[in-house]
Amino acid sequence: MSSPSSPPRQFSRPPQRIAFLASPTDIAQKTLGKFVETYGDCPLDQAEVVVCLGGDGFLLEVLHKVSEHNIPAYGLNCGSVGFLLNTVSDEDLIARLSRAQSSQLHPLRMTAIGRDGSRHEGIAFNDVFLFRQTRQAVKIRIEVDQRVRMPELICDGIIVATPAGSTAYNLSAHGPIVPLTANLLPLTPISAFRPRRWRGALLPSSAVVHFTLLEQDKRPCAAVADFLEVRDVVEATVREDRSITATILFDPDHGLSERIIAEQFAE
After folding, report:
1. Is there a binding annotation on residue 25?
2. Residue 175: exposed, middle, or buried by beta-carbon count in 10 A (0-12, 13-18, 19+)?
3. Which of 2, 70, 175, 194 has CB atoms 3.0–4.6 Å from 170's, for a disulfide?
4. Where is the active site (predicted)?
């Protein structure tokens, strides 16, 4: 029996309508063929669940698709890292899906303004980051909820991560890992030069973060939200968008919350 703190199971009965999506790698395509032969394949708009075969990057692409259809995604690792994925095995897939536990993710929404005045919007289940385009470090003014918190940060860039994305680029930049239930967003500099000792901040998930790029002509900067990249930005705003929810399924005892905790004790 699940403990009271265990994530809920997604299905009250074994799912039958499964859609399969696979990355173009050989192992993902080979696994796709085996699954479709065994379980069939359902159109995405009619499916109860989508099974994603690939790596973490491919799963992020799938999340952008399935959030529109309001169906959960169950990932199987046919890539390299696989932090957000389950392991491939010969166990019955229907049985695994029936036992799977769910985690809900809300993406970040980025609004970026280009030097030409163009406006760009994108969502990110992993992170939004700004990064220098040339050899020159960028200068960024940081406002949180319309209050200037840092008049000038000189750095290679800066990251706002979701809790799920806190173990990705954010962690590589020495940012903190955040549990899913913490309602916090890590704000992490990339190679901060001034203030040299600033290591970032933890913000409430309700925070609205506004970046203004200083000296844009001399120090051009790009803004990235998952798969959307905008070059030559002059400002960008980032906030959590709770109108969008994506559901990821995990095998019992290997849920996303547990993985985030375990990652903090990894050698």
Report:
1. no
2. buried
3. 175
4. 56
